[in-house]
Design a protein that fits this description.
By secondary structure, this protein is of the alpha/beta class. It has ten helices and 14 strands. The strands form three sheets. The chain has a six-stranded mixed β-sheet, covered by helices on one side. A five-stranded parallel β-sheet has the order 2-1-12-13-14. The protein has a three-stranded antiparallel β-sheet with strand order 3-4-5, with helices on both faces.
C-alpha cells in the first residue's frame, strides 16, 4: 500500500546518540527490497543529509533544508528548489543585526556565519559539517539562500517568530525545528511541498506516502502524507495532526512504523 516514505533525521530516525540502530537499518533495507522508496526529510543541509543517506545506501532524492532543496544522492540532480525571496533575506539580516541575534546563512551548500561562537560550534558538531566565517556577513544578503537559521533561547525565539511572521509571513515560511532553532524558508520550501513533488516524480499517490517526524517543522510533512506519523517524543502540536503515534526515537519508532505498515 505504501510506496514512498519520507523520514525526518534528528530525534526521529536518529536516536539521542545520533545513531541508527541495526534493527532500524534492517527494516529500512527490507522495505527497499520490497520496492518502497525511502528518503530523508530534514532541515539539515544537503551535504550533511547525504552523509547519513550514504551510510544507509539510499540512492534517491533527498529532502533537505526543510524542503527547500530536493537533490539526488546518486548524481546530484536537483529536482526541486525554492530559495528564500531576496527581500525577505534582506529583512531578516537587518532584523538579526538590530536585535543582536545569532544568524546563520547557507549558500552553495555551505554553512556561513559572521563570527565563531558556542552556538555555531555546537550546531556544526550536531550536523557533522564544517562552517565558514564571513566578517562582511551582510554581503550574503545579496546571494541566494535555501534557508536562514537563528539560534537563541526558546522564549526569545518564540517572540521573534511572532514578529517575523507579522513582517514577512506572507512571503516566507517560518518555523522552529528545535526549541532553540528558528528557520526561515520560501513559502513553498516545506517538507510537505517537497514530498508532494517527490511523489509526483515517482508517480505515487498521496495516500501511498508516509511521513514521519517529531517537531514543528514536520507539520507540513505529516499533513501532506497519506499516513502522517509523529514520534512518541514529538511535540504535542504534531501529535494532534498525526494519523498515528509511534514509539520514540530511542525505542526504534521508525522501525515500528515500517514493520507495522509496510513489512506486514
Amino acid at each position: 500500500m505504501y510506496k514512498l516514505i519520507a523520514i525526518d533525521l534528528d530525534d526521529t530516525l536518529l536516536n539521542d546518540q545520533l545513531d541508527i540502530t541495526e534493527g532500524t537499518r534492517a527494516s529500512l533495507a527490507a522495505a527497499i527490497e520490497q520496492g518502497v522508496v525511502i528518503t530523508v526529510a530534514t532541515g539539515r543541509m544537503y551535504a550533511s543529509a547525504k552523509k547519513i543517506a550514504d551510510k544507509l545506501g539510499l540512492e534517491v532524492p533527498l529532502i533537505t533544508y526543510q524542503g527547500a532543496l530536493v537533490k539526488h544522492a546518486k548524481d546530484g540532480t536537483v529536482l526541486y528548489e525554492r530559495n528564500v525571496p531576496p527581500e525577505v533575506v534582506t529583512y531578516v539580516f537587518d532584523y538579526a543585526s538590530r536585535h543582536g541575534l545569532h544568524l546563520q546563512a547557507y549558500h552553495n551548500d555551505t554553512l556561513i556565519a559572521k563570527e565563531e561562537n558556542e552556538r555555531l560550534i555546537a550546531y556544526s558538531k550536531l550536523n557533522n559539517m564544517p562552517y565558514e566565517i564571513e566578517p562582511e556577513f551582510d554581503k550574503l544578503a545579496e546571494k541566494s539562500a535555501p534557508k536562514l537559521l537563528m539560534i537563541d533561547e526558546p522564549e526569545r525565539l518564540d517572540q521573534v517568530l511572532v514578529e517575523l511572521k507579522a513582517a514577512v509571513g506572507d512571503r516566507a515560511h517560518i518555523t522552529k525545528s528545535k526549541p532553540h532553532f528558528l528557520e526561515i524558508m520560501h513559502l513553498e520550501g516545506t517538507k510537505g511541498h517537497a514530498l508532494a513533488h517527490l511523489a509526483e516524480h515517482y508517480g505515487v499517490r498521496q495516500e501511498e506516502t508516509i511521513g514521519i517526524g517529531d517537531s514543528w517543522n514536520d507539520r507540513e510533512l505529516i499533513v501532506q502524507a497519506g499516513l502522517g506519523v509523529a514520534m512518541e517524543n514529538a511535540v504535542d502540536s504534531l501529535k494532534e495532526v498525526a494519523d498515528y503515534i509511534t514509539k520514540s526515537n530511542n525505542d526504534e519508532g521508525v522501525r515500528h512504523v515500517i514493520e507495522k505498515f509496510v513489512l506486514n
